[in-house]
Amino acid sequence: MKNICLLGSTGYIGINSLRVIKDNQERYRIVALGAGKNIDLLLTQIKEFKPRFAAVINSDLANELKSRLNNTSNTEILYGTEGYIKIATLSDVNMAIAAMTGSSGLLPTFSAITAGKDVALANKETLVIAGSLLMSESRKMGINIFPIDSEHSAIQQSIQGHSREDLKRIILTGSGGPFMDLSIESLSKVTPEEALKHPNWSMGRKITIDSATMMNKGMEAIEAKWLFDVEMDQIDILLHPQSIIHSMVEYMDGSIIAQLAPTDMRIPISYALSYPRHLKGELPPLDLLDIGKLSFGKPDKKRFRCLDLALDAGKIGESMPAILNGANEIAVNAFLEGKIGFLQIPQVIEKTMEKHEVFPINSIDQAIEANQWAQSRAKKILEKMVGN
Ligand code: MG
User: Fold this and answer.
1) Per-residue pLDDT at 260
2) Separation of 295 CA from ligand 1 center, angstroms?
3) Per the count of CB atoms within 10 A, which of 28, 144, 276, 362 is most buried?
4) 196 C-alpha to center of ligand 1: Å?
5) How would residue 202 be classed by pLDDT, with cut points 50, 70 and 90?
6) Residue pLDDT, tens place only, 255-271
């Protein structure tokens, strides 16, 4: 029996993790749930999974949750970063699922690692901000980080049983998002509503916009660099609109190993929880005859500038990926609020990166500092941009 703390339980990955856990109750037990503001859904989850602890974002919501539970449950309610850290480090937790959005997941995830918990990681921002630190700490503690990201799950499956020294490169596939074929002119007029419609995956708002700008793919390259200990120039990005091949690994002799699966996050979630086993799932099998053709293309870095910015940040290393992340969070938010256009997202990020002098990240405080510096700098750049 694996005891699990699920951070981000009311988000897209959280909801799907609970579906996987519900289907395998003889293997997994929910000990704690961490959510943000959606206490309606959290309330339902508490009633169903009866965790010992639940944490929300602030004391007001914690009080509201307590009064709505009205002594009908034994779940202890905590709040804030301290609450998330406490549930991620409980002595009987074996694994923390890190499925919070953005940089808010950094501290709880890092705390879980330093407390010796395995981590199933959906929150790629944590690796972008503090990859080197997270990886060295996980080696020190002897814990595993299992990716909950379809691409990295595919890579992990494709390196099973192969010799690490034979690995030549990683081929990271991406659908290209909803705007793959749009011209620069059309891209400049894209609305948040249009960007929130992804052709193959339904996901949270932040990651859906990141997919549309291809920032998500760039961040995934940085994520792959850390998870699989490769150099940035060993990672190639390949467009694959059908999202059937979730990524590939090429070996020295020219062999390429790929993983194919339906586009459903329950598959990478299930593999992260049950690694190295592939447990029975409820999904219909992949019908290759029905799909018929798989096609590939090259990403257009001119139209999707965020991809290049992320790859550059990954190559520069040190604090730069944290800067990329912090600026991106602000820019995406501004786009969602209708303050800037789609093509201004990379402009905000690029200007923030230009203003930054990199420094090494040797502590979690430095990682947070870099991310926050980028956020406040990006806000200033944004004010100027919108003011004009
Ligand atoms: Mg992905």
Assistant:
1) 98
2) 18
3) 28
4) 16
5) low
6) 999 999 999 999 999 99
* Cα(33) to centroid(ligand 1), Å: 23
CB under 5 Å of ion ligand 1: residues: 149-151
Contact yes or no for 34/96 (Cβ under 8 A): no
Distance 154 CA to ligand 1 centre (A): 10
The CATH superfamily label for domain 2-147 reads: NAD(P)-binding Rossmann-like Domain (3.40.50.720)
Task: Report CA(177)–ligand 1 centroid distance (Å).
Answer: 11
Distance (Å) from CA 70 to ligand 1 centroid: 40
Question: CA-CA distances (angstroms) from residue 162 to 153, 209, 241, 248?
Answer: 15, 35, 28, 13
Beta pairing partners, 260: 245
Summarised one tens digit per residue, pLDDT across range 21-76 is 999 999 999 999 999 999 999 999 999 999 999 999 999 999 999 999 988 889 99
Q: How far is the CA of 248 from the centre of ligand 1 (A)?
A: 13
**Ligand 1 mean position, distance from CA 139 (Å):** 24
